Amino acid sequence: MSQLDIAPKYAGVIWGLGNTFGVIAGYFGVALVGLILDITAKNWNIVWNLVALSSLTGTVLFVLWVGDKVVIS
């Protein structure tokens, strides 16, 4: 399902906002991973567990909140 399926009229705005938040997360994520690795003596398991938790949370929220109807036409 894409932005065009949810709100065709505002697909560009929705995509732009999503991309902006993704870039911000990527920018600060690098510093956060470095900090976690420094604190935990280079324990990558914590980093990968946080990545998995983030992905799982996003998937669950998407499944719960997104329906099969066009919200804004």
Automatic annotation (TrEMBL):
Superkingdom of origin organism: Eukaryota
Membrane topology, from the record: Multi-pass membrane protein
Cross-referenced SUPFAM superfamilies: MFS general substrate transporter (SSF103473)
Ranges that cross the membrane: 12-37, 46-67
Keywords linked to the UniProt accession: Membrane, Transmembrane, Transmembrane helix
Location(s) in or outside the cell: Membrane
InterPro entries found in the cross-reference section: MFS_Na/Anion_cotransporter, MFS_trans_sf
GO CC terms of this entry: membrane
Family matches, as PANTHER family: FI19708P1-RELATED (PTHR11662:SF399), SOLUTE CARRIER FAMILY 17 (PTHR11662)
Name listed for the protein in its UniProt record: MFS general substrate transporter
